[in-house]
Amino acid sequence: MSSIVTRVRKKQISELMATDKRMDGRELTDYREMKIEQGLIERAEGSARIVLGKTEIVVGVKIEMGEPFPDTPNDGVLTVNAELTPMASPKFEAGPPDEKSIELARIVDRGIRESKAIDTAKLVIEPGKKVFVVFVDIYVLNHGGNLIDAAAFAAVSA
Amino acid sequence: MNDKPEKLIDKKGLRLDGRKADELRPIKLEVGIIPNADGSAYVEHGKNKILAAVYGPREVHPKHLALQDRAVLKCRYHMAPFSVQERKSPAPSRREVELSKVIRESLEPAIFMEYYPRTMIDVFVEVLQADGGTRCASITAAALALADSGIPMKDIVVACAAGKVDDTVVLDLMDAEDKLGAADVPVALMPNQNAVTLLQMDGILTQEEFEKAVNMALEGCRQIYSMQKEALKKKYVNISEEIKEEAEE
């Protein structure tokens, strides 16, 4: 997201930085206002909507039955998918997930996996044959920056 | 899901969710909710939850689609994987491609396309939760988003379905009625032009039943149309109240 920053604005930003302030009045370590709402999609097993400043993301979790991966017969399957919907920004286009959305999905995926937020061993119904498959679908509805944090928060609360 | 209830309409003539035959589901309409878009709308129609956003008129992409004397309208209807009972693959299905086309064709007659030659108007519809009648709710949402974007239009398109459940003609079918019912007739209307821009039917209806269904759907459209107007006004009422509050502070 490169854009042309005018000299006046550049000067304003750096002057504010010197006083530990930012353009919208925040301190250097302040988050924008964050709102999380859970359970808005009744059809999904879990869902959450996050509004972080102007960023808005909806995450839905669906759980289905399926086969485990052959190399991890004693673990359930966690699939994270992210979509930067074309309505979220004039720069996003419709079509199969591009590198940006795949990066977002994979980062959130690793975050959930490595933090052991989900105990995949508990998703097993019959080792090697039947497990629960957890689909986490991340839908970016409006792009206002910091998608990774916002998506991770929403995914975990969903 | 597979066990069919014996009756979709009980002895008192009430439906599975307690509605009368000619009653709409609860509807909530809101505009201007996606800050990045030029126009946007959110529709809750029963359990349907649908977002629509408009970008444009903007540069045509890909360029060869541009028309010299008018704008190009592009629609994308898409369902989120978590919007239905069984997770749907996020790749566009044949159904979604068809609905995109149908929605585009029902909106196009209302827009003054000749005002914006060599440009493109993008309409994106995301179904967050589906509960029967998504094409109609999507058209209602998309038309509201277009109105919110300020693109000049002859009229606001509004859509509503009617159909046949058991042996009764009913308004605004929900998911169970759509799947188990006998027929479905979605209708889109430009209320002030009194022109129908979409009319489909699947299932079997007699000529009388068909006429009754269409008239019922048109009546439903008119009811939703007044809600659309309210939703558009409400955005500006809210803005003027905010300004007042700021002035008082």
How would you characterize the overall build of this protein?
The complex is a heterodimer of chains A (158) and B (249). Chain A is of the alpha+beta class. Chain A has helices at residues 7-18, 99-114, 147-157; strands at residues 34-38, 46-52, 55-66, 77-84, 124-126, 130-142. The longest helix of chain A is centred in the C-terminal third of the chain and has 16 residues, at 99-114. By secondary structure, chain B is of the alpha+beta class. Chain B is built from four helices and ten strands, in the order ββββαβαββαβββα. Chain B has helices at 94-107, 134-149, 175-180, 207-248, and strands spanning 27-31, 39-45, 48-59, 72-79, 119-129, 158-165, 168-171, 183-190, 195-199, 202-203. A five-stranded mixed β-sheet of chain B has the order 1-2-3-5-4. In chain B, strands 6, 7, 8, 9 and 10 form a five-stranded antiparallel β-sheet that branches. The longest helix of chain B has 42 residues, at 207-248. The N and C termini of chain B lie far apart (55 Å). The mean pLDDT of chain B is 92. Chain A binds chain B through residues 40-44, 47, 54, 56, 58, 60-62, 64, 81, 83, 85-90, 93-94, 96-97, 135, 137, 139, 141-144, and chain B through 34-37, 40, 47, 49, 51-53, 55, 58, 61, 76, 78, 80-87, 90-91, 122, 124, 126, 128-130.
